[in-house]
Design brief:
37% strand, two-stranded antiparallel sheet, two-stranded antiparallel ribbon, alpha+beta, 62 residues
Length: 62
């Protein structure tokens, strides 16, 4: 288990991601489902882009 605000620290071996907003679960699923440009942009209420290479992700502003 890992708790983080840093998407880039989520290793490819992680099988489940929970997204929280104001203490409420707003997403629960596989990383490829939860850590998308659209989902994270909505969660953080800002225009973001998720870049992935070899299972690792980085989030950049757009």
């Amino acid at each position: 288990m890992q708790v983080t605000h840093r998407i880039d620290t989520i290793v490819p071996e992680m099988q489940r991601v929970l997204c929280l907003n104001a203490g409420a679960v707003v997403g629960d699923g596989a990383p490829e489902e939860m850590l998308t440009t659209e989902r994270l942009s909505k969660l953080f209420d800002t225009d973001l882009q998720v870049v992935e290479a070899n299972g690792y992700r980085q989030v950049l502003p757009r």
